[in-house]
Write a structure and sequence with these properties.
The relative contact order is 0.19. The longest helix is centred in the first third of the chain and has 12 residues, at 24-35. Helices cover 29% and strands 21% of the residues. The chain is globular, with a radius of gyration of 17 Å. Strands 1, 2, 3, 4, 5, 6 and 7 form a seven-stranded mixed beta sheet that branches. The protein is built from six helices and seven strands, in the order αβαβββαβαβαβα. The protein is α/β, with parallel strands linked by helices and 186 residues long.
Length: 186
C-alpha cells in the first residue's frame, strides 16, 4: 500500500551523456566513477543510465568497465562535433536530468547527491557544475583548463564548459540543445 509520504517521492533518473573519441583507459575511469555514485538522493531513489556517444569504431560494451545494463553505446561518424554528439545522446535518453561529462572526468561519489538538490531547491537555477580537481599526473593543459573552470565558485556565471554539467531535460529543450556548428578540440 502506498502512503501519502511515498506517493510524493519520485524516482530521480539521470542520463549521463558522454561524447567520446580516443583513449579507453580514461573513459573507463569515468565510467567506474559513475557506477560508484551515491544514489541515496534526498527526493527519492536514483537511477542512472550512460549514453556513450563514441567516434571509436567497433567499441563494444564488453570493453567498458560498467554493468552492460547501465550503458548504451551509440557509434557516430567522426564528422560530427562534440555538441552534435551530446545532442545525439540526449535524443536517445528519456531521463528527467541530464549530466554531460567528458570522457576524462572522474566524479566524486557525492556528485549527484550534492548537485541534484541545487537544481531542485531553486527554480531559478538552470544548470550546475561541480568543482574540478586535477588528476595526479595532469598535463599542463589540463591544469590550465581546471584552473579556468574553478575561477568562479558558488556563484552565478556567464559560461560553463560542457564537460561537467547537470541540468533538467526541460532546460535543455528550452535552449534547443548544444549548438552543433561549434567546433572544439581541434
Amino acid at each position: 500500500m502506498e502512503t501519502a509520504e511515498n506517493s510524493s517521492v519520485k524516482d530521480v533518473s539521470v542520463a549521463f551523456i558522454i561524447p567520446h573519441k580516443g583513449r579507453l583507459e580514461l573513459l573507463n575511469t569515468t565510467l567506474r566513477s559513475i557506477a560508484n555514485l551515491d544514489l541515496d538522493l534526498k527526493n527519492g531513489p536514483g537511477s542512472i543510465h550512460v549514453y556513450l556517444v563514441t567516434q571509436n569504431s567497433g567499441l563494444s560494451s564488453t570493453q567498458l568497465e560498467i554493468q552492460p545494463n547501465l550503458i548504451t553505446v551509440l557509434e557516430k561518424p567522426e564528422s560530427l562535433t562534440i555538441s552534435a554528439l551530446r545532442n545525439c545522446g540526449v535524443a536517445a535518453s528519456k531521463s528527467d536530468y541530464l549530466a554531460f561529462l567528458d570522457a576524462d572526468v572522474e566524479l566524486s561519489r557525492n556528485w549527484l547527491k550534492d548537485l541534484i538538490p541545487l537544481l531542485q531547491d531553486d527554480p531559478n537555477r538552470l544548470l550546475v557544475s561541480a568543482f574540478q580537481a586535477n588528476g595526479p599526473n595532469a598535463p599542463p593543459l589540463e591544469k590550465i583548463r581546471t584552473a579556468l573552470s574553478n575561477v568562479s565558485l558558488d556563484s552565478n556565471v556567464q559560461f560553463l564548459p560542457g564537460r561537467n554539467l547537470l541540468l533538467t531535460r526541460d532546460t535543455f529543450e528550452r535552449v534547443g540543445g548544444f549548438p552543433e556548428h561549434l567546433v572544439t578540440g581541434k
